[in-house]
Amino acid sequence: MNVRFLETFLWVARLQSFSGAAEKLHTTQAAVSSRIATLERDLGVRLFDRDLRSVRLTPEGRHAVEQAQAIVRLTAEFRETVGSRSALRGVVRIGSSDTIAYSWLPELIARMQARYPSVSLDVNIDTSLNLARQIQDGEIDLGIIMGPVVAPGIRSVEACTFASCWVASASLGIGEGPLDLAELDAYPLLTFSTGSAPHRALLDHLSKAGLESFRVYNSNSLAVMTRLVSAGVGIGALPVVLVQDLVREGRARILDIQPPVPSLTFHVVHQDRSDDILAKVITDMALQIAADARAANRQAYA
């Protein structure tokens, strides 16, 4: 029995769509239909009920899903442990937030390239909100985002926490030493996009401190935010990792302001499928890289 046909069966079952499975598998809808028809003929049962609007598993199809997952998982594990990794081909779609892209995403990509040289990567940088939806919809295979994502069939593993800070352009001439944020109400606050977890946390932080009157400028591009900080447009509420180059170059200073900016915690998130070995391998890589980065930071500041 062709394992590729079983993989096709599982994708049609998950997405309830022949066209969706074809897109995921980088093939045509006709090829997917042919594989399913061949599998049904070999098994002597009908796996799906189809009409113009929907695709539904038959009772026999529902019974087959668990067995197909086990076969595909064992095949993937066999290929991973015994076979040549250079023989593994395909595309892995990874989503990442800006913060991870600016920190250790390049290292993760480099390790993936070294381990699976024939696997292509499709990297999408977006907000955590958008990436969480794309993971749940099966549009990307794995995301490194501000999480967790609490949803059926989704696995979220905590990877790292980034300290955040108040940061301003050196050109603003804000004095050194402890400051109260209320003293700086002439400046807008620069932070993540509207509705994001850090934006909500910042608004809640300001509200508890009785500072709701501040103007807040948002962007889904942290590159834009750091440029605005450097240009002296306002005071950034951003992860330290994003502004450390500006600080080293003397173009910006981290300010000692109360209340502090909440830290940001990131998770590796993917659909929890027993047959998706690559997602688990990439998760383990990401966790190791995050741990190495924490150890390096501790050594740097020891």
TrEMBL record:
InterPro entries from the UniProt entry: LTTR (IPR050176), LysR_HTH_N (IPR000847), LysR_subst-bd (IPR005119), WH-like_DNA-bd_sf (IPR036388), WH_DNA-bd_sf (IPR036390)
Domain HTH lysR-type residues, every copy: 1-58
Signal peptide from the UniProt entry: none
Superkingdom of the source species: Bacteria
Keyword annotations of the record: DNA-binding, Transcription, Transcription regulation
Pfam families hit by this protein: HTH_1, LysR_substrate
Matching CDD domains: PBP2_LTTR_substrate
Similarity field: Belongs to the LysR transcriptional regulatory family.
Name of the protein in question: LysR family transcriptional regulator
